[in-house]
Amino acid sequence: MSFLLRRLSFYFTAFLIAISFNFLLPRMMPGNPIDALFAAAQGKMDPAQMDAIKEMYGFMDGSFFEQYIAYIQSVFTLDLGPSVLMFPIDVTTVVGMSLPWTMFLALGSLIVALIIGVSIGTYSAYRRDGFFGQFVPPFLAFLSNFPYIVTALLLFYFFGLELELLPLAYTYDPSLAPGFSLEFIGSVAKHAILPMGSMILVGIATWVFNMRNAMINVLGEDYVTMAEAKGLSSYRVMYRYAGRNAILPVATAIAMAIGFSFAGSIMTEVVFNYQGLGNILLKGIMARDYPLIQAILLILVTAVLVANFIADLLYVWLDPRISK
Amino acid sequence: MNNSIASAPNQQSQFRQTCSTVWMKCKAFFSGNPPAIIGVSLIMVILLGALFAPILSSHNPDKRVARPHVAPNAEHILGSTRNGRDVFSQVLYGARKTLAVSLFAGIIAMSIAIAVGVTSGYMGGKVDEWMNFATNVFLVFPQLPLLIVLAAFLGQVGSMVIAVLLGFTSWPWGARVIRSQTMAIRNKEFIISAEVMGESKIRIILVEILPNLISIVFGGFLGTVIYAMGAEAALGFLGLGDATEVSWGSMLYWAQVSSSLYTGAWWEMLVPAIALALTGGALALINMSIDQVSNPKLKTGPHLKLWKKMNHETEKRRGLV
Amino acid sequence: MHSKKILASIICGLLASSSAVMADQIKQGGNLVVPIINTGFVDNFNPYTSGGLYDGVLYEPLIMFNIKTNSVEYRLAKSAEYSTDLKTITVKLRDGLKWSDGKALTAKDVAFSYNMTKTAPAFDQKAIWTTGNLISVEATDPTTVVFKLNTADSTFIWGLSNYHIVPEHIWSKVAAKDLATFTNPNPVGSGPLTDIKYVKPQQIEVCRNDNYYLENRPYIDCITFRSYNDNSQIQPALMKGEIDWGSNFIADVENTFVAADPKNNHFWYPANDAIHLYVNTKEKPFDNLNVRQALSMALNRDEIVDIAAYGYPTANFNAGGIAELYAPFINKKISDKYKWITTYNPEKAKQLLDEAGYKDTDGDGFREMDGKNIDFDINVVNGWTDWIQVVQMVTEYFEEIGIKANVKTVDWSVYDSGLKDSTYKMSINWSKVATNPIEAYQTYFLTSQIGKSWHAGHGVHSAEIDTLINSFGLTNDAKKQQVILDKLQEFTAENLPFIPLFSNATWFQYSTAKFVGWPSEENPYVQPSFYDGGNRNLIINNLHLK
Fold it and tell me: Is the ipTM of this complex over 0.90?
């Protein structure tokens, strides 16, 4: 158990550092929300109103230290104050609106990429001298390393614009009411194909190579040769013997990948106008909406930390020697 | 590796020997390895294009030289942008900027990664504990969002600032890999014997350890370059870069701003996008090939078959099979 | 505002404007779909904090000043009159007004609405309480509201339309400190559409107010606001016919939007605010009038508009400081007299620069004075791409006459303080959009505006001009007022504190597939800007099914 405790205390410290940095970040940088508000109004707002508006948004604040204490408090009570962008709605409400979509996109694409990637990786390791093992991994390496934004744009252009096969915006058809109707779920699925597809394309090679390399290492081990010698079917050897052992290093990579997946979601959401966190983050940045930006970074950090901890648990479960 | 004690009396023959070793290695790297050949030749084309941009380009990339959105034709072989810039010239000059940013970011990131990783892995103890802690903290920070926020707050930043930002935010992964590799090496006999012989730590790190990390460092470097290129393009696309510079990212940005895809001027968007895609893909192919060289187990194809066959024959001769 | 008193018009302006359509042909119904650029909708119906989303929809204006027709449109009010000393404004409400919840809307509500902005300064949009000269707002009887002023000011009344009339029986229950964060759930209003059907993150539907004061209005049943990320997303939606009314920049609108359905898809881009290059005349070489004139003559405005903005804005050849938005007030004579300044003439520009002593002595293609190169930045805000493109072209034109200028993209805060504190050399900026051009001149020249307005940092000021501008409010005589405006136009053209470029376009795309009654070039009954509650209100009231 001491292993998990050590990890927990690390995560807590990392969290504290992260949120402190999160606090400092906007305060170190030029520009403030009210400026941004006036900029966005492009002359429609009277400069004479500046002070009154500052007060309304609560930017008449105390000393640096007081602000920091108040901030830490607000983080732990989850009371992050009103968003500037959507004043006077609370940041938590705003984030709550879009977080599920980002999680859906990030985790959904991660899982699909993982399943496809691991299968291809396993198979291409097993058939590494055949056409599949020769051709598919390099091809995927090539395809997967297009920059996020490019993959998204190309899919957007060909499938959305040119072929008009799939919708170009939104999480679901805005005329539908959310609910467990077939129509709604279908609409959500249809709207998710392109953004998720682009994220899967980008993510897949990681798993193919992780799995393939781990698998090739394992395939050289004695017990696999033994299994082969016993005349077990290749399917059985591949999945029951080699696969299970090879998946261990892959499991640790998942924690890292969650962070990447969330980050990738941000770019993808912008291209596909998917109404998730990334979209809001970008708008928040443009509006210098500190509370909102901080809340979103907070969520991303928390997501990565939680993912890491789950990976730790998984590791302990897979390899009990570690917990000692 | 480099620590060959053999000192040839004839300088020239040593040089020739080195040359032939390099040649052999190159040959070994490419032969029967189409991904490496494709990757390297693509990169060569792109690098040459960037290098000879002033000669190859037909127009000044910063000047209005055409009507808005002229379709590709004899004069503007890749068409013109909404602002009347020549896309072909822009993509060549953009390559310079984009590659410079990515390479610079890669160099910064790998320098930090090596410094942190090797020190941490070799020194161990408290130093390792602290450095590893710092690395892990950096690792849990979401890079891209952080980068977006930083770039936005700094105001539309020049490409070199982006390179530095990218470099300083993307070292932890490399550091972690290098650290574990260093830890694996440090207990090897040749290190221990060097320590026993009383060599200085710096010398051990530089002469004994680093050369053994080359493939891993180079692989990490390429990975960072690919990542940096994507991030630069993303920041540019989001309008967080300097829109007055010509890079592939800023080209995407202007293409987006002018709704070029909707107005039918696909060339403005697709040309830089495909340039980015090819470069990223090509670098990945090279990276994959390096992986295979450094870890021969991963090597596939005719080589492996040949090796297997030979191995089989030897074993047969020994009467093992 | 041509008469000394603002007379009550018996027929509402609306009926007059839509007189082309016979009442018996009009079909009731339909759902108007309008795009909104935001991050998604939330339940906030406070008119002051909801980004103007419900102006003219949930909230009916008291009075509206129509710049397009240069007339007054009475909405909740049936008249508004100045006293002869110009110190009192008496507003008469229509009889029998009702809130959407059926309660009576009286002068007390109106007085409350204005007085509320005194306790909530953030709502005081025209700063009538903090900096203005308003003494009191009182309801003297159920349909009469009286505004008392400290000093005579005939321009004061224009500010009244910036305030929202809210029901006292709801808003008086909100504590003063909570006003800013009050989200006004289940809103009660007096506008044409007040019934909130639903609020979804991507869409809001608001339907008709059964207690609306105009018979049979609105003709439409509901309005749907749909959330979009940016213009590039609205473009395909418009092309696919998902939106009825666009107010966004659409690239190549003829070949994309109009071409998608030439019969129904239309656009009309009348001139909006004038965009100028503000010049800091306190700095060399801009202290020299010849240089400013030369720089102005170096620009091919038609070409700039054509290339940098698809030809949608209107090139501005009036050196007098105002442009086509204020067309009725432009003095043609003065405009013609100074036309040479705004006419593209690089040869003359070079000659002027030579005369001013700026010559290329070292042969690098750029002019110097006393061995020092002229080299200056033109400030533009990050990401304001249309302006970046414009300024890029401007620098190209300057280069042709041997002047080195650079595009400098800066953060808004830098740009903003640069303009206010006059630390710029040259900066592109808009000019004031208001009811009357005098308000634009106020921001250009009043010494009291230096350091506050974005447009007063150029350094051309005088006590005389201050007096002239201030004398405008002391009269309500349109003729006398025009004399003042003429003098100001002449003054501006003579001194050229900024280089006029063009008038922004009012982005307006509309589809007649479902609805007709849109303002258009043929029937310009109102400036078609969606983001103005009064304009929007008139248009909504005019639309009906085909």
Answer: no
